[in-house]
Design a protein that fits this description.
With 332 residues, the protein is of the alpha/beta class. Helix content is 36%, strand content 20%. A hairpin with a 2-residue loop joins strand 11 (254-259) and strand 12. The radius of gyration is 23 Å and the shape is globular.
């Protein structure tokens, strides 16, 4: 059907039929699994990982990895090539079974489920994989409908199409994009289409794997602002894998650094720069890191200046009323 056997951004490796969990109805009623332990939803962390180990044969990718992702934050995840950033994400969403350790997502244990179909909260997250992983033989709208059909088979065709169009619009694409195939879209548009599918089920948690890879600087900056706006509007928790230093500076609340098979540090960029780990120093204080930091500082400096000028203009307009002999546009 496409390059990936995926649903709502899910690269499902399991051929199981999934029963609809009616995630949309959670806004109107409490599901049975939630009522047994309401305290789960009050947890400070959306994701908690302890002692994670991932082995591929004799090769160990992660060993004794710990990580907490706070609810409502955008957490950037960085690390050198081969450090297992994508493997970590796949472990969190149940596509990779760890050798050891525990993973709790939104209060539910992922590591207790041995197959994808046993994960009861899959309708509460959305995933944008590298490259988008859209079904090439489906239109954008039909791609967005895939997770809706999986979890809500009772929804009629007209409503499915309406929901899909809304999600497409939510990501900044025009309504005409819903009727196009992925091959008819630019790289940036395909990213937005894949994001629309990831948002199909109104998730609480959004996973993004290199979302700005392959985009030009303008397109990447626009996508960053889209993610930031959606996070604020929808109250999302975002787990963001990226190599883009501009993205880290612009939209991430904290950054987790993977090296030496585990998370070596988590914090704001200034906090990370204050550490003495050689990889962190090279990454954030190298030529590209310095350029991104300088650009970020300049943008905020200009923004502060513009805000100050706007404030002064507003105050002057209050203290210096328009003379009576100068007609306004309404009076002209």
């Amino acid at each position: 059907m496409s390059d990936h056997d995926s649903s709502h951004g899910h690269e499902s490796n399991h051929g199981h039929d999934h029963k609809p969990s009616h995630g949309h109805k959670r806004k109107h009623m409490v599901r049975a699994s939630d009522s047994t332990d309401e305290s789960k939803r009050d947890c400070e962390f959306a994701i908690q990982i302890r002692g994670l180990r991932n082995d591929f044969g004799t090769f160990t990718v992660h060993e004794n990895l710990d990580l907490d992702v706070r609810r409502g934050e955008i957490l950037g995840v960085v690390g050198g090539s081969g450090t297992g950033k994508s493997v970590l994400m796949r472990s969190i969403i149940g596509l990779q079974i760890p050798t050891a350790g525990t993973i709790d997502v939104l209060g539910d244990s992922i590591t207790d489920a041995r197959v994808d179909s046993e994960i009861s909260i899959r309708d509460r997250w959305g995933v944008l994989f590298q490259g988008g992983a859209l079904f090439s033989t489906l239109t954008v709208g039909e791609n967005v409908e895939v997770p809706l059909r999986e979890f809500y088979p009772e929804i009629d065709e007209i409503l499915l199409a309406e929901i899909a169009r809304f999600k497409v619009l939510l990501t900044g694409l025009g309504t005409d994009a819903a009727n196009k195939f992925p091959s008819e879209l630019s790289g940036g548009m395909r990213k937005r289409a894949a994001l629309a599918r990831a948002l199909a089920l109104d998730p609480e948690l959004l996973f993004l794997d290199e979302p700005t890879a392959g985009l030009d600087p303008i397109g990447a900056a626009a996508f960053d602002q889209l993610i930031l706006g959606l996070q604020h509007t929808l109250g999302l928790t975002v787990f963001l894998i990226t190599h883009d230093l501009d993205t880290l500076h612009e939209i991430c609340d904290r950054v987790a650094v993977i090296a030496d098979k585990h998370v070596i540090a988590v914090g704001t960029i200034p906090e990370l720069i204050a550490t003495d780990h050689p990889w962190i120093q090279e990454y954030f204080k190298g030529p590209r890191g310095r350029a991104a930091s300088a650009a970020h500082s300049s943008e905020h400096k200009y923004a502060s200046t513009d805000n100050a000028e706007d404030k002064n203009t507003s105050e002057n307009s209050k203290t210096d009323p328009k003379p009576d002999n100068i007609p306004s546009a309404l009076e002209a």
